[in-house]
Each structure stands twice: as C-alpha cells, then as structure tokens.
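#data-curation
PF: Archiving a pair of folding outputs for the training set. Convention for this channel: one message per protein, sequence first, structure tokens after, nothing in between. First:
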Amino acid sequence: MDQIIIHVDMDAFYASVEIRDDPSLRGKPLVIGSLPNERGVVATCSYEARPFGVRSGMNIKEAYRLCPHAVFMHPNFEKYKAVSRQLHEIWNTYASASQAIALDEAYLDVTEQAKDFDGAREIARTIKRRTLDELGLTCSVGVAYSKTAAKTASEEKKPDGCFEIPTPEAFVDLIIDRDVRVLYTVGEKSAEKLYSAGIRTVRDIREKPDDVVRLLGKQGRWITQIANGIDDRKVTPYRPEEAKSIGREVTFQKDVSDYDLLKDVLVLLSLCVQHRAERVGLHGKGVTLKLTYSDMKSISRSRTCYSTDSAVTIYREAALMLDAVGNRPVRLIGVSIYNLSQEEETQLTFDGFFDSGADDHDAELKALLDRLGERYHLDFAGNLEKIYKVETLHRTVEYMRRH
C-alpha cells in the first residue's frame, strides 16, 4: 500500500455551528450569507434548505425566492475560525501530514498510523466520534488510496457519512457512468467544453482521451489520468509562502459611482492586505486592482513594484490604476498583492539617501486615516484591529457609502 489518505469534510459547517449554538434552529431551513434585502450569495445552508434548491454560491435573492420561510443569517467568521482550530487540532492527531483545504476540510495522510485499511477505518470512526463528542458537530469522512478518491468518498454518504475507496479499480467502478463534474478538477466551463464534444460521463473521458486533451490541454491530460484512477499526489501541509496572492475585497449593497469613496475604501482594503501579509511574513512585488461593475462585468489591472510592504504603497498603486479605468458604477472592489516571497526587496535611489522611508509611510498613513475619520466621523486610527475582521470591514464600508 503506497498511501492511505483520509478526507474530512464538515457537514454544512457554518449552519451546523449556528444550530449547535442555538438549538431552536434545528430542523429549520437555515441560510448563512447575506440577508434577503442585501446583495450577496449563500455561504452555506442547512440540509433542510437544500430540497428547495438552495445551494452554496447562489444569489441570496434567488435563495429567498426558492425558500422564503428559511431563516437567513449573517456568517460569524470569528466563531467559525475558532471552531476550525479545534477541528484541525483533533484531526491532526491522527496524521503524519495534514493539508487544510478550508476552515472545515482537510486531507490527512494516515499511512504510517493506520498501517492498512482496517486501521484507517478505525481512525475515521475515531475522528467522527471525537468531532461529535467534543464539538457537537458531524463530519463526513472518505478513506482512500489517493486524494481524489478520498474527496469523492467523503461526498458519497453525506451528511455524517463514512465511505472507503481502497483501489483505483474501485474508484473507476464507482464513477464511470457519472457526469464528468464528479471529477473535482472539472469546473463548469471545462464541463461545457466536454459536453460540446459529446463527452458527458467519465466513461466518455476514458474512451476519448485525445479529444479531452485537445479541448483542455494540460488540464485535459490530468483529467484523463484521474478518470483512470491515477493520482499519486501527496498530502502537502499548507505553507503561506506558497500562496499566489493575498487580497481583500468588498461588495457594495448599492452600486458606487463616487470614485473618491472607492479610493477611501481602497485605504481600508490595503490595510487589511498589509495585515494579512505581515501575519504570514510575506512581501509582494505587484499590486492588482479588481472591479466588478453594475452589469457584473469584472476587470483587473496590475502593476509591478519593488515592494508592497506598506498599506500606503498598496493604496498608491491601486489608486493609480483606479484613476486609469473608466468611471462606471461599481458593485465590487478588491485589491491584492502578488509575486509573493519571504524576502523583502527595496529600490535604492538618490532620493532614498534622504528619505526616512518607514517614517514617511507612517505619516502618510496617519494622514489618510485622519482624512477618512474627518470625512466619515469615524475613529479609524483607534480601531484598526477591528477593521481587519471581515464583518466589521463590510459594516464600515457600508456606513461610509451611506454617508
């Protein structure tokens, strides 16, 4: 046996945490995300909401149309993060390597601990029992020979399920006549390309591998491999330095045409990006501005720079890019840094010999925050730690928009 991998996935995580903490919600369709009168999407929903067609990622107004009697709640990310830490602490006990995919999901390499599938089965049962006993939550667990098979297995008996796929042959037998979307690397656009060529099932992929590669290139080669049960990827612990970008974005409840307000929001977003980068010890060498307009068309603009250590630098670059785009009503704005590394780079110029550097950035940041505080009657400088929280940031931005 080369490897034994467990995939753990919580059942309707956000909703389950809320139901645990408020038993009066049990048995009711519960939708976590935006409220029906707001813009936004469904983050997750309880299993009672799903028969009505409500799904994660759905527009919140569509969810309300489908299930108007549901309970709608904003997410409490600080609570979910705290529970997530407890979950991963339990799970990691049984793995030689753990790869967190999300707050509520992880791959665990249990090859050494389990020895064989009988041992892995016992570990899976123990994880489920401890998760329920200690945290009052259910999870679904997949035990398999590969990451792809383990994730497929965890979905097989949801909710509160446990399923095993011990061999590539068992994996292929399970999925061969299912839609191509059963393979997690096949997204909506890739599926549409495959459908257009008459490739609708995993069996079709296996029978027409050349067509798949022709349509999807490198991704197509990978899809043909996993359609044959081939996946030798290892469980690799997440390392912050491997991230491709660090960003933050907000969606406005009403479209914004005031580009001065957008620049003010960029100050706060840049602060959040700086904070996240500092927490993981990363520096960027480029800034990206993202905009989604009222017609749902999105654009992004990027600029390279020597270092994006400070919120001031991030803000300057993003503001310059904002000035260069057409003035249209904006639904969403975001900023991120990319080309990440653990090494800080600075550009030495003649002016740099006489520049106080960090002191100047601190002074400029204070001036920006003072300007925002005066304009919106808010004490930004005294409450930056709160701004870094998603819920507070969104409430603050909405307050700024209304004022």
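PF: Second:
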Amino acid sequence: MRVLQSTVAGLALTLLACPGIAMALEWEPFVDPYGQVFPALELATATMAPDPEESDPTIVGDQHGLVGVYLDAPAGTRFELTIRVPGYARDSRLSGSLPRGVEGPFALNPVIAWDYSALAQIKQPKPAIVEYELSINGARSEQRTQRVRMRSVNDVLFYIDEEGEENDLDFNWLFAAYVNEDHPIVDEILRDALATGIVDSFSGYQAEDTDDVLKQVYAIWHVLQQRGIRYSSITRTSSEHEQVYSQHVRFLDESLAMSQANCADGTVLLASILRKIDIHPALVMVPGHMFLGFQLDEEGEQLAFLETTMLGDVHSGQGGRLKKLRQDMRIDVDHDASLESFAAALERGQEQVDEAGDAFDNEHNAEYQIIDVQAARAAGVMPITR
C-alpha cells in the first residue's frame, strides 16, 4: 500500500510569507487554521516528533505549533511569552532570544499545555478565549486576547485550500486517528464473530492463505450486519469555512450505538477491527468518498477493497460470484444474506479502484489517497481516545 506522503512540517500552518498578515504592531497573536482549534488534530499528534529536516528557523519553539504569536523584531531580541486557553489549556510558556542570522518575522510557538481530557469531551463547536502575555527585552508584559472556535472532537480537518495550489495543505492522514484497534468494543465484536462458527480463530496472516484472510474479514462483516449497522450519508459539520474542509466522523461506539455509519465511519470501524487481528488495513479516498482496503498477504502483494456503505444492504443475484466466494472460503453455514452483500461490496470496492486508474500514484492529488494506517502510526498519528 502506498504510504500517504504528508510531511509532519505541514502541521505548522505558518503564514509568515503571506502578504495579508498585518505587522503594524510588533506582535500579533494567531490560532491556525483561521481562528479554529481542532481537538482531533491536537489529540492525534500530541506525541508526534518533529522532523529535523523540515525544521523552519523562523519558528521558535514547537515546530508543530498552531497557537502562538508573530513577532516582527530584530534577531537577538529577548522575549517571554505565556499563552493560556481557560478551560482547555493551562499556562504555556516560552522564553529566549530570536535566533541570529535569521531574517524574520518569527513565529513564537510554546508547547501548549492542553487539557486533553477536556478536548476529547467537546461534542459540538463552542467559543473560547485565548490569552496572551508577551514581554520584549524585559519590558512590562503586554496582554491580548483572541476569540476562537473550538471544533467538535468528531470534526476531522482534512484539507486547507490556500491561495495558490502550492500552498494547499493535505490533512487526510488525520482520518487514521479514528482507527482505534484498542477500543474495548473491538474485542466484543471479535468474540461475537467467533461465536458464529465462520472462523475458529483470528490469526491474521499465519495460515499464509488469502482465502483464510478473506474469511476472517467476512466473519467480522457478518457480525456487523447482524448488529443492524446501516449506511448514513450525514457528514456535514455546523462550522463550515470556505477554505477549511472538514468532515464529521463517529467514534466506534457511536456508530454501533446509533446503528448507522457514513462512509468514513464504517471504514474506520472495520479498519480498527482488522488491525486488532493483524490484518493490515488502509483508508481509500476518492472524490467525496472513502472505503476500505486491506492486504490479503503480509507482504502486501495482493490487496482487496471493500465498499463499506453496502454493509447494511442485502444483494441477490450474485450468481457465480457468490458461489465461487462460498467455495473458496469454504463457508459451510447458511449466511446467504450477509455473504451476498460482502461479495457485492468486494466487487464494488475493486471497481472504484479500477475506475481511479493511476490517480493514486500522484502523491499531490489530495482527492485520491490510500492512507496506510500502519504508516500513519509509525509517523506518530495515534488513535483518539475519550
């Protein structure tokens, strides 16, 4: 699976080179993107280490920082900065001198001491105040405040459309933070899947048999269909911005409790369960849509794709396709309804990949992405827990 190429440095939305930033004052507070805080972004990247090769010398402090101040001052200028977000982040401090030999203006980014538990509980957008105190060259601190919008923890920032395509920022990898292989409900689903008798155990790739892998995935599909999961097209958020693209994604327990899932919900749900049994999943994105990909072998030489929105559908008339699937997987119990929908979903998933052609090979095409969840984990994108 192709690894999603999103540089860690893209997290620092430094707009220092943009002519629209006013520097009439010596310093100006900022919250990116566009006065909004996305809890999902802060939670998923809390432990992500910066890439030294992507370091920006005009950023002092947290290279990933999205809350700070722009300071237009000579190199060597001393500063002391404190930022707090009442109710969400305690005092966060940064002090030192502006680096010499570097032309400003500079971004001062303390590591924000977020209350991660508070961020994880934000279920709907709400206003907040960010407070700034900055002292320059030992002078008395100047204080300012900024009103911002705290987004829901379910809102996934996936793209920022700046002026000029070369400045656009792709955050599609953030969807991987909603894949949570450690959620307690995953074990519950796997236990129910074993009870069906479709499989004796979940062994990942140990059997070295692609049909065995397919059978394990089907057992999970069958149980989710038994639980009555249905497709829901609801993705809209209440905090839309013409340049900031986001989508509402449910957590695993929310999808199961509501018995409905949009394309992203169903995909991250299935991906979570597959990761738990060591089958490597990917989130496949095409314009306006997401579905599941997974490896049929440990090396990733053979892939399968699953249209997750068909989870609640019952398809008849698959004919030879269904018969072959039943024979190959050696299904000896009667599960025609779910097996037919599984066969149709596999077929539709493959069709969409074929229709996309080589669009996935263009790493700069944000509309066609294959987000390798394991690669996202290796880059530091962790599951969001509440």
